[in-house]
Design a protein that fits this description.
Helices cover 35% and strands 18% of the residues. The chain is α/β, with parallel strands linked by helices. The strands form three sheets. The chain has a six-stranded mixed β-sheet with strand order 6-12-5-3-4-13, sandwiched between helices. A five-stranded mixed β-sheet has the order 9-8-10-7-11, with helices on one face. Strands 1-2 form a two-stranded antiparallel sheet. It is elongated, with a radius of gyration of 26 Å.
Length: 357
């Protein structure tokens, strides 16, 4: 019998589980069937791989040798399969963009459509930064446009290259008739909002923890936080039920105002990520330039921001654009504003490139 990958998977599963019963459950097999397969593998290799006992199984010297090789071979095969799938998916020209909800993704799509009319542009949006990054790592997307809180690392740091698009202070959203909205000063102390209910959008990053820590430093714990979609966040602020945290790029919206927090207790970094071994990596510099221009344009349109850089471009041209929402692609839609934070754009931040592709 020739040794196959499935045989190595069995050996590894038995070793990891420590018993045939648990390994059979993990593999979705009946225990007698797993025992029979393991015996065939042992016959093919010429000796016992495990010693059976009352407390489970332990690897023999031969078993340790096979396990050592299996733990090298199996990940290498998985990586080969993933690279091959990425190669096939990225064969067509175009831009497959993924991002969390906010104005930058829409601005990037608009600029690409202007500069490269006729080139397909597709989008995928999700509340999950990790999901978007995994799409790039798996070859389903070319670029990820996400954000992280402060100096927190981006998702998939060992597999994707990341560079900073912009860095912004986090603002607070207030109803236009809120007493602090009418205050003559430009910024607001976080401690002044200690008695307020809060609202923000969901996400799987560390922003919630960073916000809670900033509140503790300001001397309070938020009494209530409504986690909901952007439209509901805006509504709760407009009717005075809550105050919200938002990106500095949040657009002017009737019924509310935005103000920076004094001392900048929270900072949001916009990041662009790509796979360094993918064909799309050759276009990363151009996409980064467009993303930074989209940020400057969003700041110019924001409720309290000012443009950091002037940009200009040719008139809008038609382009093939497909947008999607969480878990879907190919549906018509828009990238909405986000009640979450952003950030200062250095001249050319260092690109974080993984050691292995």
């Amino acid at each position: 019998m020739d040794l196959e990958l499935r045989h190595l998977k069995i050996v590894r599963a038995v070793a990891d589980a420590g018993s045939l019963t648990r390994a059979a459950t993990a593999l979705g097999l009946a225990q007698p069937a797993l025992s029979a397969q393991l015996k065939r593998v042992e016959r093919a290799l010429g000796g016992e791989l495990f010693v059976r006992g009352r407390l489970g199984v332990r690897a023999t010297a031969l078993g340790e040798l096979v396990l050592e090789r299996a733990r090298v071979v199996l990940p290498a095969v998985y990586e080969l399969q993933e690279d091959a799938q990425r190669f096939v998916r990225q064969g067509a020209e175009g831009y497959r963009l993924g991002g969390t909800h906010g104005p930058l993704l829409g601005g990037l799509v608009d600029r690409l459509a202007q500069r490269e009319p006729g080139v397909p542009v597709t989008t995928y949006t999700s509340w999950s930064e990790r999901e978007v990054a995994a799409g790039v790592a798996g070859g389903r997307l070319d670029f990820a446009l996400v954000g992280v809180c402060g100096e927190s690392p981006p998702p998939e740091p060992g597999r994707l290259a990341w560079t900073e698009v912009a860095r912004d202070p986090v603002h607070v959203m207030l109803a236009e008739d809120h007493p602090l909205a009418r205050a003559p000063r430009a910024d607001i102390e976080l401690a002044e909002l200690a008695a307020e209910a809060w609202t923000d959008v969901p996400g799987d990053g560390c922003f919630g923890d960073c916000f809670a820590a900033a509140c503790v430093r300001a001397g309070f714990t938020p009494a209530c936080v409504y986690e909901t979609d952007t439209a509901s966040c805006v509504h709760l602020v407009q009717v005075g039920r809550a105050v919200g945290l938002c990106r500095a790029t949040f657009p002017a919206t009737p019924g509310l105002v935005t103000r920076p927090l004094a001392g900048t207790p929270l900072v949001w970094r916009h990041l662009l990520g790509w796979h360094p071994a993918a064909p799309a990596a050759a276009r990363a510099a151009g996409v980064l330039e467009h993303a930074r221009a989209a940020h400057a344009e969003a700041m110019a349109r924001s409720a309290g921001g000012a443009p950091r850089a002037q940009t200009s471009g040719p008139a809008r041209s038609a382009s093939s654009i497909t947008t999607g929402t969480t878990g879907t692609t190919g549906t018509t839609g828009t990238t909405g504003t986000s009640a979450y934070p952003p950030a200062r754009s250095p001249s050319w931040p260092a690109v974080t490139v993984p050691k292995t592709a």
